[in-house]
UniProtKB/TrEMBL annotation:
Protein localization: Mitochondrion inner membrane
Protein species of origin: Hermanssonia centrifuga
Domain of life: Eukaryota
Name this polypeptide is given: Uncharacterized protein
Stored Gene3D superfamilies: Mitochondrial carrier domain
Family to which the UniProt record says this protein belongs: Belongs to the mitochondrial carrier (TC 2.A.29) family.
Main location: mitochondrion
Membrane association type: Multi-pass membrane protein
Matches recorded under InterPro entries: MCP_dom_sf, MCP_transmembrane, Mito_2-oxodicarb_carrier
Keywords on record: Membrane, Mitochondrion, Mitochondrion inner membrane, Repeat, Transmembrane, Transmembrane helix, Transport
Length: 146
């Protein structure tokens, strides 16, 4: 992380000086700061750590695709509502949460309300864990800064 921050700062410094020189301005402006930060991020992503970003993303998204293809298709109520086709003049079968719950339970039985539950949990659980770690880390940083 320290190397990455150092690389980003070095790229930010380089692009800041370059843009000041190109525009003939003597002081950094808000617009130049945004352009400088964006350029530094792009430089870091494409030049400084291409192996990490290119190989990591390929492996990550390749694995996610394979895992999703192996899991049963999620069929939670939200998915049915979002997947409903809109025909002019016709009310969709699944158009609102509570009526959709009743329709599914009546037509397919109460157990059908849990179709897709396991894949949904398997997908959301890791993200929730990462989110909690990030929140705790960030709060720790703010607590130390007081």
């Amino acid at each position: 992380m320290a190397i990455s921050l150092y690389d980003h700062s070095a790229a930010n410094d380089y692009w800041g000086k370059t843009y000041l020189k190109l525009t003939g301005q003597s002081k950094m402006t808000q617009e130049l700061a945004i352009l400088t930060g964006s350029s530094a991020g792009a430089t870091e992503s494409f030049v400084v750590v291409p192996f990490d970003h290119l190989w990591w993303n390929a492996g990550y998204f390749g694995c996610i695709f394979k895992v999703r293809s192996m899991l049963p298709k999620p069929e939670v109520v939200k998915s049915r509502i979002q997947g409903a086709t809109n025909v002019p003049g016709q009310v969709p079968k699944y158009n609102w949460t509570y009526p959709a719950l009743l329709t599914i339970a009546r037509e397919e039985g109460p157990a059908a309300l849990y179709k897709g539950f396991a894949p949904k949990v398997l997908r959301l659980a890791p993200g929730g864990g990462v989110l909690l770690l990030v929140v705790e880390f960030t709060l720790g940083v703010f607590r130390k800064g007081k």
